[in-house]
Give the backbone structure.
Amino acid sequence: MVYKFRLLSDEVEDFRRDIEIDSDATFFDLHKAILESVNYPDDQMTSFFICNDNWVKLVEITREDMGGMSEEENNVMEETVIGDVIEDEKQRLVYVFDPLGDRVFYMELSKIEFGKDLDKAVCVKSTGEAPVQTLNFDELMSKSNTAAIASDDE
């Protein structure tokens, strides 16, 4: 089976990526396809979250084994097959590409094609520029402090 995921951003209105990937691929394969489609380097601690219909995060799939002490299952991208976790069209996910800024791509499984296989994930539609991968926090803090001072003066 081939899954078609649509990625959107709440930061860039016309941003959209459609990525097709085999259901037997791992989340690491999907992660690599996303980075390639937006020209980001692979230097962040990214994660996927399986979400409900209201975008509430339910299950995390991490880039690296975090070695947590909790009894919860630790889902790692390289070991987690997409088709083992996602089975239904319209399944929602978020892909955290900037963990410090808590910035994400919103994803939805838009189509499942039965009887088809893919050797490698492919971006089949790309519109708009991707948001910058990481924010400059000094600049961000300066702007928020300026805004806070301006609102105090009103």
Remarks:
- Strands lie at 2-8, 16-22, 47-51, 57-62, 75-76, 92-98, 103-113, 122-127.
